[in-house]
Amino acid sequence: MITAAQAGHIGGDFSVTDILTVLFHGVLEIDPARPDWPDRDHFILSKGHCAASLYATLASCGYFSPKELPTFMAPLSPLNGHPNRTKVPGVETNTGPLGHGLPVGVGTALGIRLVGRNSRVVVVLGDGEMQEGSNWEALMAASHHRLDHLMIVIDRNRLQQGARTEETNRLDPLDARLAAFGWEVRTVDGHDHVALDAALRPVGTDAPVAVIANTIKGKGVSFIEDRVEWHHKVPDRDQVEAALAELIIDEPSGVGA
Asked: Residues 56-80: pLDDT tens digits?
């Protein structure tokens, strides 16, 4: 998708893919045949620049045909570089500007409470995104209102555009900081599906839950893993073939056409 479009954010796409897979194929209460089902769980990808991974996940669930994936970022394609709720079923809110997804998630969780539904709200954020002040205001509001049906998952790959997070604006001790804001904190290997499944479920809490998912940017491809330049670098055809060989994935027809 990214090579065909000649644009995208492959490093972050690969770090978040396992999280999205477990959420959509195991944890979230959703119905792809009825994207607007009132009692569905609500998912927000706040790190909207990783739309390619979200689109691949939504297509795998049946929200739309996988045949649309090669149109990623093409003229008039609904699969924009950032998710758009008016164009793609399964997208709850437009995201892209960092620091917006969690405030929207807090409002969504409050709305669900007001209408008396039991749905959950899950927001996935990038760790570099946690440098945005709007997120900390939202964290404070969520704990104040005891939004125990709200969960955030932080894709903790420790890289952001141009540098490591700890070089840019130190986040650690992130777990202690989140706990100080009144959140229940869980830490997990963000590539272990069994551990993710356990951490992402609403078990025994009366507070909002923050899951710190320790991940590797570019997970699964040796020449991309943990390399800052792959934040939005585009692989050429030879690199695509090398990556597919490492991932043991047959290239779907039409990719790169």
From this structure: 999 999 999 999 999 999 999 999 9
Q: What angle do CA 207, 51, 96 make, to 5 degrees?
A: 70
Whether 30 is covered by a domain: the verdict is: yes
Residue at 112 is within a domain: yes
What is residue 53's three-state secondary structure?
Answer: helix
Query: Quick one: average pLDDT of 25-48?
Result: 97
Domain that holds residue 168: 2-247
Q: What is the spatial distance between Cα 47 and Cα 160, in angstroms, rounded to a whole number?
A: 11
Q: Which of 97, 49, 43, 92 is nearest to 72 (CA)?
A: 49
- Say how many domains are in the chain: 1
Tell me the CATH number at 133: 3.40.50.970
State the sign of the Cα–Cα–Cα–Cα dihedral 12, 18, 24, 29: negative
Residue 174 counted as domain residue: yes
Count CB atoms within 10 A of the CB of residue 252. Answer: 13
Q: For the full predicted model, state whether its pTM sits above 0.90.
A: yes
The answer to whether residue 254 sits within a structural domain is no
Q: How many CA atoms lie within 13 A of 107 on its CB side?
A: 9
Q: How far apart are CA 27 and CA 91, in angstroms?
A: 17
